[in-house]
Amino acid sequence: MIKLYDFLPCPFGQKVRIVLAEKGLSYELVEVDITKGENRRPEFLRLNPYGRVPVLIDEDTTVYDSTIINEYLEDEYPEPPVLPAVGSSALRARARLFEDFADTSFTPQVGQLMLEMAKPDAERDPERVQRLHQSLGRVLDYLNHELQGQQFLASEFSIADIGFAPRLFVLQALGIEAGQNRGNVEAWMNRLLERPSIANVKGLTAEPIAGV
């Protein structure tokens, strides 16, 4: 039995849970409340010395970092795939590049905006909010361009799309209409929500959680 240590609002844990759902894999969820410091307990640090969720245990194998976990799941449970077919090297690279782009240039910025918007009006930095809106707008414009003539970012549904999903659907609550004047993004988001793995992901929220 697969065991997943996770904190439900964490977007990186959500990435893993989407892949588990896509592959139809059963697992035991062990919730780790990082707001209470449960990720700093010795027993958890033995699983991941960085003290971060998610962590996946599959029999005698322990894996942490959402990207590495999903690569492991693809290797160990290849059907149905969440990467383009073996032999499609360019598409596989494209999928991995978009996942990395989501992890480094999208998800953290949405998290920063969530934290800023959660502050009382008197403490909020409007210039920072504007900068984050502009930065995220540029990402969405880029995605709109890259989705031209494509149903998904790497032709077929893959880790590229999964990387964006956890934070893509909280943007409206933060004052950003991702699909406005971006027809390709809007159609892409609708296609993503048709997938039960994404529509039913638990913990999707616009509440700020420091560190995730």
Properties at a glance:
4 strands; four-stranded mixed sheet; globular; Glutaredoxin; alpha+beta; Glutathione S-transferase Yfyf (Class Pi), Chain A, domain 2; 212 residues
List the helices and strands and how they pair.
Layout: E1 2-6, H1 11-22, E2 27-31, H2 42-45, E3 55-58, E4 61-64, H3 66-76, H4 89-105, H5 107-117, H6 126-146, H7 159-168, H8 183-193, H9 196-199
Parallel strand pairs: 1-2
Antiparallel strand pairs: 1-3, 3-4
What does this protein look like?
By secondary structure, this protein is of the alpha+beta class. It has 2 domains: about 80 residues, 3-Layer(aba) Sandwich (Glutaredoxin), CATH 3.40.30.10; about 110 residues, Glutathione S-transferase Yfyf (Class Pi), Chain A, domain 2. The chain contains 9 helices and 4 strands. The protein has a 4-stranded mixed beta sheet, with helices on one face. Strand 1, helix 1 and strand 2 form a beta-alpha-beta unit. Helix 4 runs parallel beside helix 7.
**Total beta strand runs:** 4
- The amount of beta strand, in percent, is 5-15%
Q: Mind telling me the CATH class of the largest domain?
A: Mainly Alpha
Helix/strand/pairing category? alpha+beta
Number of H- or I-type helical stretches: 9
Low-confidence stretches: none
Which percent range fits the helix content?
40-55%
Instruction: Supply Rg.
Output: 17 Å
The secondary-structure element order is EHEHEEHHHHHHH
First-to-last CA distance: 26 Å
